[in-house]
User: Which sequence fits this backbone?
């Protein structure tokens, strides 16, 4: 157990989480004055908060044609549909890959491709369970359109969830991104939708675990059949 705790606290924390960990720690000190069991509950909550905002180093696969997962979590949906108008991706149907993050996943979001941020659109909305399909339209969200050096257009949408109440985006329109580099964060439990260019099929399956900046979601410029997974 001590070694497992050491692995948790040894992982770097994103600066966005410092004030939250400080708040949890202050409450824990107050609980210590009230009742010792409450103190230990507070310690556990503080460690969880630190863990939630962890920002581990990732090994980024190299390749201009690779589309990487922007989030840690589970591939919850793969659908073919017309992308939201705010993304400016046209009226043709494309493939959308959704990655759902629970409260135990790392919530630092990473760029799926290298390129320039052509547009950013923020929409207020509800806070439904992010695993629901309709969350893409009804929930609070922040949409980015990234254009690669080769001209491919990728849509990335940060979607708030049932518990999440804050979407953070570190970049602006016109910003240059490197694949796998950090561009945002969502608190606490949420989802990211990735809209692939027309004709590009995903290389992941529903139910597969994705790692931000490492898992390859698709390969641009290739005609492939979407994969299917079998649970064993």
Assistant:
């Amino acid at each position: 157990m001590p070694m497992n705790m050491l692995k948790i606290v040894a992982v770097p924390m994103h600066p966005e989480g410092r004030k939250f960990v400080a708040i949890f720690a202050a409450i824990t000190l107050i609980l210590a004055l009230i009742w010792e069991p409450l103190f230990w509950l507070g310690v556990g909550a503080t460690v969880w908060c630190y863990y939630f905002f962890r920002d581990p180093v990732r090994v980024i696969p190299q390749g201009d044609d690779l589309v990487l997962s922007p989030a840690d979590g589970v591939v919850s949906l793969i659908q073919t549909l017309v992308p939201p108008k705010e993304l400016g991706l046209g009226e043709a149907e494309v493939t959308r890959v959704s990655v759902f993050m629970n409260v135990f996943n790392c919530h630092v979001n990473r760029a799926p491709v290298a390129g320039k941020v052509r547009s950013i659109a923020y929409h207020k909305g509800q806070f439904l369970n992010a695993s629901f399909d309709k969350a893409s339209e009804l929930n609070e969200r922040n949409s980015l359109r990234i254009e690669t050096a080769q001209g491919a257009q990728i849509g990335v949408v940060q979607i708030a969830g049932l518990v999440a109440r804050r979407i953070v985006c570190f970049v602006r329109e016109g910003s240059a991104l490197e694949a796998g580099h950090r561009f945002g964060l969502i608190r606490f439990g949420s989802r990211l939708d990735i809209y692939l260019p027309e004709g590009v099929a995903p290389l992941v399956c529903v139910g597969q675990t994705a790692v931000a900046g490492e898992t390859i979601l698709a390969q641009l410029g290739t005609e492939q059949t979407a994969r299917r997974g079998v649970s064993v």
Summary: The chain has a mean pLDDT of 84. The CA atoms of residues 102 and 177 lie 26 Å apart. The radius of gyration is 19 Å. The first strand starts at residue 66 and ends at 68.
